[in-house]
Structures are given as C-alpha cells and as structure tokens.
User: Fold these one by one.
Assistant:
Number 1:
Amino acid sequence: MANCGRLILFSGPSGVGKDTLLDVLFEKRPLLRHSVSVTTRNKRDSEVEGKDYYFISVEKFNEMLKADEILEYNKYGKHFYGTPKKPIDKWLKEGVDVILKIDVHGFENVKKMYSDKCISIFILPPSLEVLEQRLRMRGTETAEDFIKRMEIAVEELKKCEEYDYRVINDSLEKAAEEILTILDK
Ligand code: ADP
Ligand code: 5GP
C-alpha cells in the first residue's frame, strides 16, 4: 500500500531502557508517533498521564475491551496493558510511523494482525546483572514486583530471536543511533 505508515514494535525486558531510548528517538525524529497505551498499574512519579500511559481503572479497561476500543492487550504481572485501536488506524492511514512499546505477547498479536506493516526491535541488556542493577536503581518496584519483573525478563529474553532486529542498550547513544539507522532503512 502506497504511503502507508509502519508499526514499529519495540520490546525488551523491564528496566532495559526502553523509555529512556524512546525519549531520545522522539527528540531526534519528531514525526514519529507514540502509541500511548492504557494500563491499570499505578503511575510512577516520573511518568506523565497521556505521555507515558493513560492510567485507568480495571472497570474502565473492561469497558474499553467491551466497546472494542483495544487493539491488543496483555496482563503483565498483576496489571493490564492495552493498545488503543483508534489512533493506530488513523496514523497508519495518514502514512506516519508509530512506535508501540509492547511486551512479547503484544508483539506476537500485532504481528499476526499487521505482518506487512511491522518492524520489530528487541532491546537487550548487556547482561542480566546490568538489567537487575538498572531496575533496582530506578527504584520504582516493590521487592515482590522486582522479582516478578526479573522472572518475566528471563522468559522474554528467550523470544528475542523472533524480532527483526536486536539492539544492545549498553551505551545509550550507540543504541539510539543503531535504532535510528534501522528506522531510516
Ligand atoms: P524500561 O522502560 O525498559 O523499563 P527505563 O527506560 O525506565 O527502562 O530504564 C531503566 C533505568 O535504566 C533508568 O533508571 C534509566 O535511567 C537507566 N538506563 C537506561 N538506559 C541506560 C544505559 N544505556 N546506561 C545506563 N543506564 C541506563
Ligand atoms: P511497565 O510497567 O514497565 O511500563 O511495562 C511493563 C510491560 O508492559 C513492558 O514490557 C511494556 O512493554 C509492556 N506494555 C506496555 N504497554 C503495553 C501494551 O499496550 N500492550 C502490551 N501487550 N504490552 C504493553
């Protein structure tokens, strides 16, 4: 389809640096759009409603599901995360590229729906020890959630080969440059 936008599926374990990288990417490529997900988890102090997520109740999430407003969703840990449908269809029609920060289940689902429009990038940590350090340093999780996120991370890392590209986030600048090169291909 001529002039059709791409869906850039951006995954990686919690704490690997996805949000930090996205801030760099959106600054360098202002035309890129960010699909802002809805989530039922609590907002972190550093997060902004409508920029990082729409923070909603489980009741609202269920209403949106019922009204077919969610393209895909998953339960990660104890909370639901979903991609609102409307903006995606609009941006694809307008021919703009959209970044979706989603977990590996979301990646599998969106790829099934839009296989010809997807580019998938998996962000890897230099090592599991570094990942653990970053997640700990960020200081946003309870001890219980921290352990759960590390367990999920080990499972997610096994799926990295399913993605079109893998980028190691060791030096932030280098990782951002690598992603920009992929997007400019
Ligand atoms: P994610 O969005 O993948 O959960 P974040 O972007 O919140 O991860 O990053 C987790 C922590 O790691 C943050 O404190 C961030 O500042 C730090 N971080 C991200 N990228 C790097 C990097 N390349 N080197 C060192 N620290 C990093
Ligand atoms: P966090 O709580 O760290 O912001 O996100 C937890 C996980 O949920 C991350 O792997 C993130 O990519 C994923 N995630 C965020 N939004 C969505 C979404 O809309 N759909 C899916 N499937 N996963 C999401």
Number 2:
Amino acid sequence: MCGIIGYAGHRPAVPLLIEGLRRLEYRGYDSAGVAYVEAGALRLLRAEGKLGELEKKINGRDVTMATSGIGHTRWATHGVPVERNAHPHKDNSGRLALIHNGIIENYQERKNELLAQGYTFSSETDTEVLVNLIAEGLKETGSILRAMSWAFARVEGAYAVALVSPDEPGVVYAARKSSPLVFGQGLGENFVASDIPAFLPYTREVAFLEDGELVRMDANSWQVFDAATLEPVDKPLHHITWDVQSAQKGGYKHFMLKEIFEQPRVVADCLAGRVDLRAGRVRLPELDGLEPPRRLTIVACGTSYHAGLWGASLIESWARIPVRVEIASEFRYRDLLLDGDDVVLAVSQSGETADTLAGMRRARELGARVLGLCNVVGSTVSREAERVVYTQAGPEISVASTKAMCSQLTVLYLLALHWGAAKGTLPAEVAARALTGVHGLPQVIEAELPRMRERACELARKYASVRSFMYLGRGQSFPLALEGALKLKEISYIHAEGYASGEMKHGPIALIEPDFPTFALALRDPLFPKVKSNLEEVQARDGRIVALTHPGLDLTVDDPWIIPEVWGPLNAFLALPCLQLFAYEMADYLGKDVDQPRNLAKSVTVE
Ligand code: M6R
C-alpha cells in the first residue's frame, strides 16, 4: 500500500521522482525517500512524514546530476513509520537500493536465515530482508537480473519493487507480484510506477506489467522478462487518453471536492454509448454472449460494498436474480457454497484491493464465473475477471471515495436494466422510464450541486462540534446511510453509525440524546411512513435530526434538507452528493486533512 516510481532518462531524476511521488501520495504518506547513483556511489535520502519532509531534506543540496533513480511514499505495514523504516532500503554491501509496495509474508523465515549467515538489519521491514536476499542472490548468480529472479523464488507474498545499483548506473529494475506496477515508455526516458499519473506529464504510452514479470530499463531501452525463467516477454503498449489535468485539483481546494463536483460528468461518461433511448435498451458489449446469472454474489469493500448493496436490490427487483452482497474480507475465508451456476461480481474502484482480489480468486477456484466492475483500466481486478465493465470515472485521487461510488451505482443500474431486459422480467414502461430518467440525470445533479454545497456548509457550522452522528435509512436508502456514516468518520474523525432505521430500536436507540444527532434519509418512497415513525422515536428521546427529504413530505425535524425529487431509484444520485458534501464541509470546517485522512490509504493492497 505504498507508491513507487522509477526513472531512467535524461532529466535530473530527483526532482522528477519527487513530483511523481506527489501524485502517488494518496497511496500512503507515512514516510518518503529516493535513491540514485551519483559519481559511482549510491545515495539515499529519506524522511519520516509526508513528502514535504523529504523535500526539506533535499533543499539546499545539488541533486541535479543523477538522471536515474527510484522513489517511494510509504504506508507502513512492517515497522513503525519512522525514518529507519522508510524506503529505499540498502543491502549490507551498500550496492543495492530497493523500494517495495506489498508484504513479504515469509520475511521472518528468510531474515533468520540471513541473520545466521551474518547479515545485519537496521530496520524492522520486510523490504530490507528482500534487498539482502537479492544481494545473496547476486553472490550466487553474478547478475542483478538473475539475483532478483533467485530472490523472488524464495519469497511469498505481494510485491511491486524497483531497484538501482552503482554497479549498473543508469539502469532501473522493477518487478511485480500481486501489487500494481505500470511501465511508461518516453522519448529517451523510461518510467515505472504504481500508477499512471506518476509519470503522465512525460508519456502516455504504457505497458501493464503482469504478476511474475520483471523489467530492466535504461534511458533508451527496456525489456520485460518472466521473473522465474528470465525468458523475454513481448509487452504491447497502450495509449492513455486522459490527461494530467484530470489528475490534478483543477482549482478546487481538495481533490475530494473536485471529485464530488465531477459526478454529473461521471454519470454522463458512464452512460455514453451504453444507453440507446430510441431502442429503449442498454448496451453493454462487454457482456455480449453472457447469459444473465442464475445467482449473483457481489464482493467488495468499503464504499464499493455500499454501492453493491444498493445495486443488489435493483438487480433483484428488475432482473429477478437472487443477489447477496459480501464484504470481501469475510467472504474470502468462508466455507463458500459456490459452483458453476454462480456469478461473482467484484466491485472495486482501484481494482487492486487485496481482499476483493482474494475473494475473486476463491470464487474462481470453486468454479464460479467472475466478473469485474472496476474503474482503473488494466488493474488486477480487470485482468483477472472473465469480463470487466469499466466505470469510466477517471482517476480518483481523494482517499475518500466519492465519484467512484456514483459511477458504480450508474453501472449497477445499467446492469439491472440489461439483465432485466435479457430475462424479460422488466416491464417495458419501467425500462423506458428508467432510461429517460438516467439520461437526464447529469443535468439535474449539475444544477443542484452549488445549492447542496451551501446547505452542507450551513449544517456543518451547526453540527461540527458534535462527537457522534447516527445515519438512518431504509430500503434503498440504507446503503446510503452506511456510506454517509463512512464518509463522515473517515475524513472528519467524528464517530458515526450507519443503521437501518427499523433496526435502531433494537439497541442503538439507547445512544440517542441531544448531543448525538441523527442524519436521516427520509425520501419519498413506499417506506417513508415507516422512516417517519422511526424518526419520531428519535425525537421522543430529544435527538436532533437533519433529514434529507423531498418537497411536500409531511415531516417536522430540526434541520430539513430538501432536495429535488427524481424518478424512483435515481433519487440516490441526488442524496449521495449531499452526504459527501456534508462530510466534506464538516472535515474542512474542523481543519482536517481531507484528501489524506490519517491511517488510511487509497488502495488497500494488504489484507
Ligand atoms: O478500490 P476499492 O473500491 O476496492 O476500495 C475499497 C475501499 O477500500 C474504499 O472504498 C474505501 O472504503 C474508501 N476509503 C471509502 O471512501
């Protein structure tokens, strides 16, 4: 769960690596470091804390000589986040420097062997074990390439690594297994990184490295090898069409705010080419030739799980397919009852979430067919799924996921329509209404966002001092209540509970008092009268209520937040930005680090 970048070219490497790390900082920010070769010597610069701390260390030094190097931004897995554990790590001879994203599961075993051979360690990291294992491999095999292969054969776990050495100045080696790594080919320069935005200002030509591949690159050449056999592998290059601007803040104070405001465009992009209004149907060519599932299991984590919960009820209702939704970290370890009649849909923004990937792999082992719903093109989910439907939301930088959920809801909505049409379970008038409704949705969201933000600001000022919030919703609003609570807690650090409003009286109602307010989703739907009664139960305990509601509904609460009503399930697309903006404004008002909340990382590539 770290960000790595490697560069070999003609520009000063250190400033370029720092700039690349800035675009990878969403992957972790406990410490940062770079390594490069200068005048035949290996140089390491590392600092605890965010990238700015590393820059302070670099300031005043002349680091313009080196034209190749590696850089790392860390999210701690082994060892506390202090400088001695920061990457890069050197081997005992000081001839190799390595950066690593992932976890070497058998590192203790390997470390004990190396200790017995006289190796010493100055950090608690698994990475220092790996670099010394490569050094041992170098003794055995005589070349860095063979040494890396030798070492990888002896480790278990996940890694994306990059390595430099003064023995081969100007050369960067990199490899991956179960952690993301992309290669970028420039003109007289080459790159590797955990994610494309790291090098996007310099090239759009990329190759996605697969598990078990290793690349050797210098300024003018590159070659991918099978890490086990060292046979050369031909890799096709892909042209990336999105630009650096879409990976920048674009004038907004935070990426999160920018991404919330991108949602109208996200829905439009998701629909583009997929909705045929005249024919009254959805086109998902990615699923051509695939029968609708007989049983569907949605597997996901965090916000993607909430999107899955929301989508499940639509798929059940429109396509009459039984759907269960599973938290991936639970699903992967259960004694699962899956077979060839089951379809598993992995939902993941990043496509790299370790638990979701493990869930997919278990499902496949048991004979289920595995589909992916994913944002990042070329990610592991997209490559391991039998078919993948992309959410096309563009890069999501803020750790708090916003536009990705909006895009997931859109695709799940389309899937429900697609399978409903294929099975003939969806009445034509519902299909027509659903398609015209979703088609007009981007303009409605666009028009409402400024007003939503104003209301979120007002409410944030009023409620920012509370220590806890209850989020309540029923039916299709229940997943939104969970999501609202998740957003609030992850960026403002205010405790929040998302609950099904009908379930609240079975326990959580004991918490209600004036300082424990409730954020209710009380939209016009068949369950509104039930929600209203649940809110009356809260009011009877002196609980204050903010209620997201529709015009004309009979509801009296402390702070109504009235949003325009659209058709049926599409109301979620207007409720969602309100929940996101409320959390955003609370966190911003409290002066929290919105885009990089403490203890979190964007892509959770460890279990
Ligand atoms: O990339 P994924 O969609 O698989 O990520 C899943 C969760 O880690 C993610 O949604 C997380 O909960 C976000 N921080 C929520 O804002």
